[in-house]
Amino acid sequence: MKIKTSSSSSSSESHDSCKIPKGSSGWPFIGETLHYIASGCSSHPVSFMEKRKSLYGNVFKSHLLGIPIIVSTDPDVNKVVLQNNGSTFIPYYPKSITELLGKSSILQMNGNLQKKVHGLIGGFLKSSQLKARITKEIEKSVFLSMDSWKDKELVYMQEETKNITFPVLVKVLMGVDQAEDLEFLKKEFGEFIKGLVCLPIKLPGTRLYKSLKAKEKLLKMVKRIVEEKRLNLERIRTQESDQMDAVEVLLGDTAESLPLDFISGNVIEMMIPGEESVPMLMTLAIKYLSDCPLALKQLLEENMVLKRQKNQLNEEDYVWTDYMSLPFTQNVISETLRMANIVNAVWRKALKDVEIKGYLVPKGWCMLVSFLSIHMDEENYENPYQFNPWRWQSKQGHAAVNYNSFTPFGGGQRLCPGVDFSRLEVSIFLHHFITSYRWEAEEDFIVNFPTVKMKRKLPIRVTPISPSQLNKNHNTHHNERIQSL
C-alpha cells in the first residue's frame, strides 16, 4: 500500500483526492475523552472503538486528551503508519510521559540516532550468545521465586512474576546482581513508573512530582554504574560480546561516543517494558490457562515430554533452544499476547499531510493506532474473546493467522527489540511452573485502564506435583491418545 504526502496542509490535490475520516469531536475541550476512559475502565474496553466503527468505519476522527485525532482500527492502515516513522510520522505521548522520560528518550527520538540505538540493543537482545548465557539466570530466578511459595497460603502471581523478571532485567541491562542494589532499584523504579499515566502537574506531593524524584535517585545510581563501566572501556571493547550487558554494548560502540546521561536515561527507559509487560504476560497466561483446562493439559503434556527427555539422557542443563522449540507453548504465548493487549495502542503525529487508503491525516494531527480493536475483531479472529491457542497452528503449510493483524510488540523500525527475549523468559517460566505445580486460581478480573493489571493480583493456591503424579498423568495422556486413534 502506498502512502502519499504533501508538505502543506493547503494542498488542493490532497484535499480533493481524499477527505478527513468521518467522526465526532464530542464536547468542547474534553472531546470524547470521558467515553474513551470509561470504555478502558469497563469489562469491554474495545466498546469505544466498536461503537464508532459501526457509525463511521474502521478509520474515524475523534478528539481525545485535548487534541484532534484519527483512530485506525484497520490492519493495513496501521501497518503503513508503523512503517513510516521519522519523516512522515513521529511518536506522540501524553505530557506526563514526555515529562517523565525527558527529551532524549528513545521513545520520542527520531532519525539516525534512534535507528542506531534500536539496532544495537535489538541485535544484543536477539543474539544467541545472550540467550545462551541468560537462560541460567532466568531459571535461577524462577526457582528462587517458586522456593518462596512453600509457606504461602496464597501466591499472588502478578507480584511473583515481577520478582522473577526484575533481577534478570537488571542483570541484562547493567550487569547488577547485588541484593542491596537490586532492592534499591526495584523500590525507586516502582515509584517512578507510577507516574507514566497521571495528571501532568509537578507540584510537591503530586504523582508526577514523586515519580520525577524517584527518577533522580535512579539516574544517580545508573550514572555511577555507567561511569564505572566507561573507565573500563578498553576492556569492554576487547571482551567477548556474549559477556556484555546493554550498557557495555552502548559504550563499546566505536562508531560514535554516546553521552553518559543519554545512556543512563535510556537504560532506565528500557526497564519499563521488561518490568511491566513481561510479568503481566506471565500472569495472564496463568489466568487464561486456569480458565481453559484443555489448553493446560496439552501444554503440560508437551512440556513433560521435554522434561522426560532430559531425564532419560541424564541432562540436567537446558539450553535456550529447548524452551523455544515447544510449538504449543509458543501458541499459548501468542494467544495470551493477542487477548491481553498489554500494549493496546501507539500514538503518532503527522509531520505533513498524509494520504492512506483514501483517508487524509492533516499535518499536526495525531493518529491512534489501535492494536486492541484489531486483536478482538471477529473479522480477523474467529471467536476473538475465546482463549484458543490452537488458532496459531499452521494449516496445510500456511500461516494460521495474518500477521498484519497481530501487533502486540508494535511494528516497523520501532518494533520492540526484546520480542525474542520476552518469549524466552515466558517459555522458561511456564515450563518449570506447570511441571512443578498444580494450582487453583481464585476469582479475579482484568483491569484495562490506565494499564493492564489484575484487580487482585491473581491469587492462586499451589500444590507441588510429585514424581508419581507426573508418571500417572503421563500414562493417562498416553492411554487417551491410543483411544483417540
Description:
This protein is of the alpha+beta class. It has 19 helices and 13 strands. The strands form four sheets. Strands 2-3-9-6-4 form a five-stranded mixed sheet. A three-stranded antiparallel sheet has the order 1-7-8, with no helix packed on it. A hairpin with a 2-residue loop joins β2 (59-64) and β3 (67-72). The longest helix has 31 residues, at 260-290.
SSE diagram, text form:
Layout: E1 3-6, H1 12-17, H2 33-41, H3 47-56, E2 59-64, E3 67-72, H4 75-83, E4 89-91, H5 95-101, H6 111-126, H7 128-147, E5 155-156, H8 157-174, H9 179-193, H10 207-231, H11 233-238, H12 246-252, H13 260-290, H14 293-312, H15 320-324, H16 327-340, E6 345-350, E7 353-356, E8 359-361, E9 366-370, H17 372-375, H18 419-434, E10 437-441, E11 446-447, E12 453-454, E13 459-464, H19 467-484
Parallel strand pairs: 3-9
Antiparallel strand pairs: 1-7, 2-3, 4-6, 5-13, 6-9, 7-8, 10-13, 11-12
Helix pairs in contact: 7-8, 7-18, 8-13, 9-10, 10-13, 13-16, 13-18
